[in-house]
Amino acid sequence: SFITDSAPAATALASGYKTDNGVIGMDPSKRVRYKSISEMAHEKGIKVGIVTSVSLDHATPASFYAHQPSRKDYYEISWQLADSGFDYFAGGGFVQPTGKKKDKPSSIEYAKSKGYFFVNNRQDFLKLNKGTERVLVFNPVLDEDAALPYAMDREGKDMSLAELTEKGIELLDNPKGFFMMVEGGKIDWACHANDAAASIGDTLAFDEAVRKALAFAKKHPGETLVVVTGDHECGGMTLGFAGTGYESFFEKLLAQKGSFQAFDAKPASYKKTHTISNGRLEDVLPLVESFFGLKKLDGASKKTLEKLAALGDRASKDELALALSPREMKALEEAFKASLGGDQAKADDETAYLIYGGYEPLTIALTHILNNKAGIGWTSYSHTGVPVPVFASGRGQELFGGYYDNTDVAKKLMSILGFNPNFASR
After folding, report:
1. How many helices (H) and strands (E) does the chain have?
2. Are residues 162 and 82 in the same domain?
3. What SS3 state is found at 245?
4. Is the residue at 1 inside a domain?
5. H-helix or E-strand containing 192?
């Protein structure tokens, strides 16, 4: 396929070899293991760290230490994490720490038995120092998929991706060097849900993590390389929408107060006591306005604002810019009914899936409206085949110019380290 999922994409970046969608660190036959660059580094005595904003057993981080026929083998992947012997794991938790049926030995306890010091609170995290040999860090607050909160939903007790990266550099730095893979995984998740504001928020959080890496590289010129790329594009996000033509209004995204995931929880109590027969969109419009800045205006209010805006009143212009049109109100009415009817737009309902992508209908309708007002469009709820950029800074950066296959990223990194792509075993 021209469109990859995260498992083969990360496998390519980690090992230099292709595989099928859904496969982690193995060939398409699911019998041959590929050896990742991180495993090669570990064998050479180079310290290794894996950091992510999603669960540590998710496809991208897993491809750097695990080998499984299915990315959904979360329990088995979490045990291979402990078996890897890598020095630093930090981010989300484990999706299935006691197996699919929750009847197996704890993956966390197994990691402890393999010498990992487990941390899941800010106080102990900040106390970590070079005296700790192996570290497993979970953020204290995890969502239902064992991931960190979105950056725009983060609270004081949460660890940021930048903090996890900075601590990793502190613990891994040594005369023999280190290799660290840092993933801003929730950028992808926000794009799956077509939430531009959440995606931008997590991209900025990832940018802060990159800054930590570049700050270290600046102190160690000539011996450090920082490479930034994506394993794929997601959502078909475009700067440009038919309704805004050649104009862009990205500042409108600032009206959104949290991620799509945070808004999902807001009308939950209302949905418990209301159905299509007695629910009214007007009941939740105040919530919509406070969270997204989107507002329904009556005729008189609109005329008043238009007069003030014509006189140069900025606040009136801003309010008009986020006013809901009749077309948008109709879309919200349909989404509201779908939400109350329990229609989560499953894949077997083609029309509903094309509109809502399997997400909460009202939330998706709202993010689409705000995104479109800002001049942002989407084509998919899945990955796309759009090329992704590669940025490199430091020793060997000249190797990363031009267009090339995703497997070449691993090969270029390996050439700099003196490694060769190879199979681990049959």
Report:
1. 18, 13
2. yes
3. coil
4. no
5. helix 185-192
